[in-house]
UniProtKB/TrEMBL annotation:
PANTHER family: PROLYL ENDOPEPTIDASE (PTHR42881). Keywords: Hydrolase, Protease, Serine protease. Belongs to the peptidase S9A family. Its EC number is 3.4.21.26. PROSITE patterns: PRO_ENDOPEP_SER. InterPro entries: AB_hydrolase_fold (IPR029058), Pept_S9_AS (IPR002471), Pept_S9A_N (IPR023302), Peptidase_S9_cat (IPR001375), Peptidase_S9A (IPR002470), Prolyl_oligopep/macrocyclase (IPR051167). Pfam families: Peptidase_S9, Peptidase_S9_N. It catalyses: Hydrolysis of Pro-|-Xaa >> Ala-|-Xaa in oligopeptides. Residues 3-398 form the Peptidase S9A N-terminal domain. It comes from Streptosporangium oxazolinicum. This is prolyl oligopeptidase. Residues 457-667 form the Peptidase S9 prolyl oligopeptidase catalytic domain. The keyword Hydrolase applies.
């Protein structure tokens, strides 16, 4: 069927017409935003609340540890190390690398002895990571850059002489337009040219594959996983590096062609622990012998829970009775249970600071009786907690470094019914004692199995302190209730996610929290698709929309950025039945002339290499042409910024502009 696309010319950012159009949009944005009250107040308060800084969990290598921390006033978090003698020093400060603040530290991985550090940085938000090596003792860069390393894991062999990593093929070796794909796993030996790297895996496989790679603590076991794009399934191989060479590992299939996700952990006790959602959509932990890693040999250690989702585990074995700590989320609220390592019997729980979100549990690689985990909730900045299995006590290990006065808020978890009767959970954050309908932002994501969990947010707190309510809906497509919940909102079932959003809005109105004239929706990336569908399907239900870095043209999304890696989530327009799904909700294709649409602010980032800003450009143009009311349709097009990490000052500016816009169009005047 023919599909109208009147603004396709906006797909070319280098076209003079596109450039002129963007200049005009910038002028329109400035004229509208500059006239709105409250912007400087939001900026000041968001910056103040972000002055809490941040702190990351320690990564141990013997008696040396590595961690991230951002102090008040810093634009980016800094990577620190603490020497065995207790001396702390900064290893990597992005502002030292680049005083403009445009360089971000994307990932880092010390070798197994803590002597060398592999780290990846990118510039201007493009996420095109380059990999470097550093001598930890001296802080000197000893190798790099190795380019084309976006999203690359690094798996060190013992001794720090070599590591496995993932790198894209050169652009000259792939078809035009496929430069973002075609990854391979390589072995790199420190001190040699990348031209001598050994190709280990990936030849002849799916172009959109992502690869994971890990090496056990003792260096004996190599595991490689492959996922087609963002598919919620992976193939998995393992090799015994004692029985075959690291440069030519004899890989044995653990899982192939199975609709499930699995990962391996080689225990210090000689057992193989399998984290999997195979036959267990809320996940479980199984055990087997490393020499028999196949599914038929797996035995349940921590079975699937009927309600909670298993998210992580850690092993503490310097005890008379070794234990496994198991992290769960129950309706997106975190908890940790303690289990006998041999039998899996539940023997206790880990005290946690409150009803919030727990980050990954870390342990010392060589074993011990201590574990560390991050904690945050809606009013508590990130902290690191230490659990001592000998005493059963949890204590504060490190708090975020800045002292801030956090406003009092009331957080409720409510449930409501969606269009098909499904029960959906939602967090509602309000000023204490607030009564009557009030300006409300409804936020959602609903995709890729990503869970919406409680967390410290300067933007949310600023909004609520000003008198508004902020609601976070745990829509289908997310991971809050496990993999079945994810799949209930993907592919042909994507409309469920939009129905869940509309039902959340109707619940907030029916319960007196807000009214449609005071209700805004906000979302980014896949959440931008969500609110794009929201405003085109139910323009009467919402007063205002913030749509950030969105996917909106679902007929052509695969042709740009990383779009081809997402057809496992959305479907492909090249297949007739999947085209029908996509066309049924594609926001750009459902803009209708003469409709009174909500006031809408698109925020996009010129260096975004995941979701091209053309989606918002085209949708903005279509809405401006179609809009039947006086409510504005605006575009905030930010240069030298991308989809992910950014400097704090850029975060403040963006959040203040968004809240100022939403406050004006929902009547928040406090």
């Amino acid at each position: 069927m023919p599909v109208p696309d009147p603004y396709r010319w906006l797909e070319d950012p280098d076209d003079p017409a596109t450039k002129d159009w963007l200049v005009g949009q910038e002028r329109l944005l400035e004229s509208e935003l500059d006239a709105l009250p409250g912007r400087e107040g939001f900026k000041a308060r968001i910056a103040e609340l972000l002055g809490s800084g941040s702190i990351g969990a320690p990564t141990w290598r013997g008696e040396r540890r590595f961690f991230m921390r951002r102090t008040p006033g810093q634009e980016h978090a800094v990577l620190y190390t603490v020497d065995p003698g207790g001396a702390e020093r900064a290893l990597l400060d992005p502002m030292t690398l680049d005083p403009t603040g445009l360089t971000t530290l994307d990932s880092w991985q010390p070798d197994k002895e803590g002597r060398l550090l592999a780290y990846q940085v990118s510039v201007g938000g493009d996420e095109e990571s380059s990999l470097y090596l550093m001598d930890v003792a001296y802080g000197d860069r000893i190798e790099g850059p190795i380019d084309r390393c976006r999203y690359s894991p690094v798996a060190w062999l013992p001794g720090g002489e070599a590591f496995y990593y993932v790198r894209r093929l050169p652009a000259t070796e792939v078809p035009e337009g496929e430069e973002q794909f075609h990854r391979r796993v390589y072995l790199h030996r420190v001190g040699t040219s990348t031209a001598e790297d050994v190709l280990i895996f990936g030849e002849g496989l799916e172009k959109t594959n992502y690869y994971g790679v890990a090496v056990s603590l003792d260096g004996r076991w190599l595991q490689i996983s492959a996922s087609r794009g963002t598919a919620p399934r992976n193939d998995l191989w393992v090799a015994d590096l004692q029985a075959s060479s690291p440069s030519s590992p004899d890989l044995v299939v653990v899982q192939e062609g199975v609709d499930a996700q699995s990962a391996l952990h080689f225990g210090r006790d000689g057992r193989l622990y399998v984290f999997t959602d195979r036959d267990a959509p809320r996940a479980r932990v199984c055990v087997t012998d490393p020499s028999e890693p196949w599914f038929e040999k797996w035995r349940d250690l921590i079975p699937q829970d009927p309600e909670a989702v298993l998210t992580d585990f850690a092993i503490l074995d310097d005890l008379d009775r070794p234990v496994m700590l198991v992290a769960w989320t129950r309706h997106a609220i975190s908890e940790i249970s303690v289990h006998d390592l041999v039998t899996g019997e539940r023997v206790g729980e880990v005290p946690t600071p409150g009803l919030g979100t727990i980050g990954g549990i870390s342990e010392r690689p060589e074993g011990g009786h201590e574990a560390w985990f991050g904690y945050t909730d809606n009013t508590v900045p990130p902290s690191i907690q230490r659990y001592d299995a000998r005493t059963g006590e949890t204590t504060l290990w490190a708090a975020s470094p800045g002292a801030v006065e956090v406003p009092a808020v009331k957080t409720e978890q409510v449930t409501y019914l969606s269009a098909d009767g499904s029960e959906v959970h939602m967090l509602v954050i309000s000023p204490p004692g607030a009564e009557g309908p009030r300006p409300t932002i409804l936020y959602g994501y609903g995709g890729f199995g990503i869970s919406m969990t409680p967390g410290y947010s300067a933007s949310i707190l600023s909004w609520v302190e000003a008198g508004g309510t902020y609601a976070i809906a745990q829509l289908r497509g997310g991971g809050e209730q496990g993999e079945e919940w994810h799949r209930a909102g993907m592919l042909s079932l994507k409309q469920n996610v939009f129905d869940d959003l509309h039902a959340a809005a109707e619940h907030l109105i029916a319960t007196g929290v807000t009214t449609s004239s005071r209700l805004a929706i906000s979302g980014g990336s896949n959440g931008g698709l969500l609110v794009g569908a929201g405003l085109t399907q139910r323009p009467d239900l919402y007063a205002a929309v913030v749509c950030s870095a969105p996917l909106l043209d679902m007929i052509r999304y695969e042709l740009f950025g990383l779009g081809a890696t997402w057809n496992v989530e959305y479907g492909s327009a090249e297949k007739p039945d999947e085209f029908a799904w996509l066309h049924s909700y594609s926001p750009y294709h459902h803009v209708r002339e003469g409709v009174s649409y909500p006031a809408t602010l698109f925020t996009v980032f010129q260096s975004d290499t995941r979701v091209h800003p053309l989606h918002a450009w085209k949708m903005c143009a279509a809405l401006q042409h179609a809009q039947a009311s006086e409510r504005p349709i605006l575009l905030r097009n930010e240069a030298e910024a991308g989809h992910g990490a950014r400097a704090v000052s850029k975060t403040v500016e963006l959040a203040a502009d968004q809240l100022t816009f939403l406050a004006h169009h929902t009547g928040l005047t406090s």
